[in-house]
Design a protein that fits this description.
- By secondary structure, the protein is of the alpha+beta class.
- The protein has two domains: about 260 residues, Beta Barrel (Thrombin, subunit H), CATH 2.40.10; about 90 residues, Dockerin domain (Type 1 dockerin domain), CATH 1.10.1330.10.
- It has six helices and 18 strands.
- The strands form three sheets. Strands 1, 9, 10, 12, 13, 14, 16, 17 and 18 form a nine-stranded mixed sheet that branches.
- A hairpin with a 2-residue loop joins strand 16 and strand 17.
- The longest helix is centred in the C-terminal third of the chain and has 19 residues.
Length: about 350
């Protein structure tokens, strides 16, 4: 088992879904709005045709991907595609040692909420969602032909078992040992388990060729965070490895490096509840729709764990501001008093009932 596990280390290959679960369920999860920031990274090469890997929008004009994706195999970089629109690349910043790159876009992406970077240390042991545009096959034949089933966006889940260094007796680890690590748990196949619990999740998944640069997402306090970038795994089409694992760049470890390049991410724009780079009416709608919630906290502007009137004030005070720019001059749309009262009424009733 250990020999098979270290037979090959490559970039984001051999995607596997459960053979006993319809692929449509993975495709449906991939269309969840929480993961809309995962797009295609288009290149041109290998005989002159266009092909793609994956990338994640983290700011209207910036994406994260794996360092090995830009110019892979001598290919020419084309652009990031989100919801059918391609945005040409600008500058590319590659981390000096980790498989991570920050790429500038020449035009801002609109209509898509950028992913929020995870900064904590509690992702290990969490159920995470893997999202990308890679090839796939099922667990009855877990080695797809590269490029045979690539994208649309597909998503599945796995439990983050630890770091690659935690399993160095079973997996090759000469570099990138701090990457997040997990294996594919086969239905009815505990003998192939490398790490963690041997029971597969309902949508158990491992990344595919083409998923390189895709996102690994965790949920915490009602928020969805980007915790990892797809980087490595241990198998290649045609090699009958019994055990499959996957390594992901741990975003929290490189937060400072990322924000040195994109300073706007270090201090989020107050009142920008949908994180599209501008404080506008759409953020008010998000606040209104989640008023009173203690679980959906995207509009929790003051960080007190509940969406309330104070968060409206945060939005109002910052209305018109844009990422990286000074406050705009203009009038703030005040909600009509009757409409605001109706919005606040359920919360006020609960408040006074508690007081009495």
């Amino acid at each position: 088992m250990c020999i098979a596990a270290i037979a090959y280390v490559g970039q984001a290959r051999a995607g596997v879904i459960r053979a006993d679960v319809p692929d449509q369920q993975y495709l449906d999860l991939g269309q969840d709005p929480r993961y809309e920031a995962v797009g295609r990274y288009w290149l041109n090469g290998f005989g002159g045709f266009d092909w793609f890997a994956s990338a994640v929008l983290i700011h209207p004009k910036w994406i994260l991907t794996a360092r090995h994706v830009p110019n892979f195999g001598g290919s020419i970089n084309i652009g990031y595609e989100a919801e059918g629109v391609r945005h040409p690349f600008g500058r590319i910043f590659k981390h000096p040692s980790e498989d991570l790159a920050v790429v500038e876009l020449q035009t801002a992406v609109t209509g898509i909420t950028p992913s929020q970077l995870y900064r904590g240390t509690s992702e290990i042991g969490s159920v995470a969602t893997l999202v990308g545009f890679g090839d796939f096959t099922d667990s009855s034949s877990p080695h797809p032909t590269e490029g045979s089933n690539r994208g649309p966006r597909r998503a599945g889940q796995n439990v983050i078992d630890g770091l690659r260094s935690d399993f160095s007796q079973k997996v090759f680890c000469s570099n990138w040992c701090g990457q997040l690590f997990f294996d594919f748990d086969y239905p009815g196949g505990p003998s192939k388990n490398i790490s963690g619990n041997e029971l597969p999740l309902p949508l158990e998944y491992i990344s595919a060729s083409g998923d390189s640069g895709g996102g690994l997402f965790v949920e915490e306090n009602g928020q969805t965070y980007l915790a990892g970038i797809s980087s490595t795994d241990n198998s290649v089409p045609g090699v009958p490895d019994a055990s499959l694992w996957s390594g992901w760049v741990r975003v929290a470890d490189y937060f400072d490096w990322i924000t040195d390049i994109v300073p706007d991410l270090a201090e989020p724009l107050l009142g920008d509840y949908n994180r599209n780079g501008v404080v506008d009416a759409a953020d008010y709608t998000l606040w209104k729709d989640n008023f009173g919630s203690t679980t959906e906290l995207a509009a929790d502007g003051n960080g007190d764990g509940v969406i309330d009137a104070a968060d409206y004030t945060v939005w109002k005070d910052n209305f018109g501001n844009t990422a990286g720019a000074a406050a705009a001059i203009g009038s703030v749309p005040e909600p009509a008093s009757a409409a605001l009262l109706l919005t606040l009424a359920p919360w006020l009733i609960r408040f006074f009932r508690r007081r009495n």
